[in-house]
Amino acid sequence: MMVRTVVRWWAMLPALALLVGAAAHAQESRVPYVPTPQDVVHRMLQIARVTSNDYLIDLGSGDGRIVVTAAAKHGARGFGVDINPTRIAEANENAKKAGVIDKVEFYQRDLFQTDLSQATVISMYLLPRINLDLRPKLLDLKPGTRIVSHDFSMEEWKPDIHETFYSKEKYHGAGGNSELYLWVIPAKVAGEWRWELPLRGKPQAYVVNLNQTFQMLTGNVQVSGRSVPLQVARLRGDELRLTFTADLGAGPVKHELRGKVDGNRFNGTADLSGARSQGRYDVSAVRAAAQ
Ligand SMILES: C[S@@+](CC[C@H](N)C(=O)[O-])C[C@H]1O[C@@H](n2cnc3c(N)ncnc32)[C@H](O)[C@@H]1O
């Protein structure tokens, strides 16, 4: 018996549309090749504090200089992706010359189709619109991952560090400024957090409401039936610091909380300083409701 397989061409349209879409996106997201001057590469890696514990991914890696320098000078591992096969060949050649082929890899790939989950550091020299397209994907990376960008910002996502660096090598040796930006991926902390402290033999309840825009936090604390504003609310990766002053019934008490966020849990310490309440307490807070 002969079985005839009829391939209905229209059934393949969705897959075809996906392929065409991906190709068009790659085409659209093309950034011209302009290498980062080597003195700027060194400064980017310094600002990102790259060490041998890091895994660096360069998005649009050109001749591989950022990944190769991270491996050769700082002992980091990592990979680069570039859409252009000539750049990949140059990058592999440079890795060989620098003796770091055991630490780095280069893939011909669209940067938007690249899995970034391994990265502790991401470097990029792209374009403002590409940075903005990448932003949601970057913000979903592990808290604490550092992003270092040459010349282009992320608009309203303000950098943790911004530096203007004079490069002798920029513009083919004519010299000029490079803008360098560093962001640390913030943990997602918005919502209502609760904890208790054993003060003067009695449990004292605290409720903090945090609003978050990127790494910027605002909020208030409800304690002893009153709401007080947060005086300091800082987030760097998963490290959270909150300061507020509350009257616990015997005058104002300054509270300084420091610790780490892990999903819906916070663990750290609270330093209290007031007339009748002082000392350091362990704090274990839970997020009752995320925003
Ligand atoms: C400005 S160069 C930067 C090269 C290198 N990162 C450096 O700083 O020296 C941008 C690089 O991105 C590559 N590129 C452009 N669009 C890309 C895409 N969609 N996916 C991967 N690479 C891309 C280009 O081929 C080029 O090599």
For the largest beta sheet, what order do the strands appear in spatially? 11-10-9-8-16-15-14-13-12
Oligomer: single chain
Choose one word for the global shape. Answer: elongated
- Number of distinct helices: 5
How many distinct domains?
A: 2
Note the gap between the termini.
62 Å
Helix/strand order, N-terminal first = HHEHEHEEHEEEEEEEEEEEE
What is the architecture of the largest domain at the second tier of CATH?
3-Layer(aba) Sandwich
**Major β-sheet profile:** 9 strands, antiparallel
Structure classification: alpha+beta
CATH class descriptor of the largest domain: Alpha Beta
Q: Short summary of the structure?
A:
This protein has 291 residues and is of the alpha+beta class. It contains five helices and 16 strands.
Main features:
291 residues; alpha+beta; Rossmann fold; Lipocalin; 2 domains; 9-stranded antiparallel sheet; 7-stranded mixed sheet; elongated; disordered N terminus; binds S-adenosylmethionine
Question: Can you characterise this structure?
Answer:
The protein has 291 residues and is an alpha+beta fold. The protein folds into two domains: 155 residues, Vaccinia Virus protein VP39 (Rossmann fold), CATH 3.40.50; 100 residues, Beta Barrel (Lipocalin), CATH 2.40.128. Helix content is 21%, strand content 42%. It has five helices and 16 strands. The strands form two sheets. It has a nine-stranded antiparallel sheet, with no helix packed on it. Helix 2 crosses helix 3 and helix 3 runs parallel beside helix 4. The chain starts with 12 loop residues before the first helix and ends with a strand. The structure holds S-adenosylmethionine. S-adenosylmethionine (SAM) binds next to helix 3 and strand 2.
